[in-house]
TrEMBL record:
Region (Disordered): 134-153
Biological source species: Rubripirellula reticaptiva
UniProt superkingdom: Bacteria
InterPro entries: TonB_box_CS
Protein name: Uncharacterized protein
Length: 153
């Protein structure tokens, strides 16, 4: 009398079962790889979109312009002159006057408002830190910076 198993899968040979296991594992790995590539691409697209989004930031530049409380000294300039200097030195093609999306406005005597993308804000911060460093001769502590929310949240 032949022994018959209650399970039908025992009729397949070991090679067939190994092949089916390999196929299942390969499709799961392929799905995971494709899924991760798709998610990575979406994340990269969102990051790129955020880096291109223009938002306003107010920078305090009293220490560079002399401010209202301090008398004007020889190396101090007005906020308008500083704004013009920033436009000439930082990302010239990105400013509105040259067809770009970024704007810069001086609020005399103590601050400037820059509406730009993250990359241009980083360049403006680096430029202002460099100006502070050359003016004082010491390392800059960083700019006073206030982000403005347009959504009201």
């Amino acid at each position: 009398m032949k022994y018959q198993s209650a399970f039908g899968w025992t009729r397949f040979g070991i090679a067939t079962l190994l092949f089916l296991t390999l196929c299942a594992a390969g499709s799961l790995v392929g799905f995971r790889y494709g899924m991760s590539k798709g998610v990575d691409a979406q994340v990269d697209q969102r990051i790129a979109a955020l880096r291109l989004q223009v938002y306003p930031v107010i920078y305090r530049v009293t220490d560079l312009t002399g401010g209202a409380a301090q008398p004007i000294v020889g190396d101090a300039l007005s906020a308008k002159a500083l704004a013009r200097e920033i436009q000439d030195a930082v990302g010239q093609i990105h400013w509105g006057e040259n067809g770009g999306p970024c704007t810069l406005r001086a609020l005399d005597p103590e601050s400037i408002v820059v509406s730009a993308s993250t990359m241009e804000h980083e360049l403006v911060v680096a430029y202002l830190e460099g100006r502070r460093k050359t003016k004082s001769g010491a390392p800059a502590a960083g700019p006073d910076r206030f982000e403005v929310s347009l959504s009201g949240n």
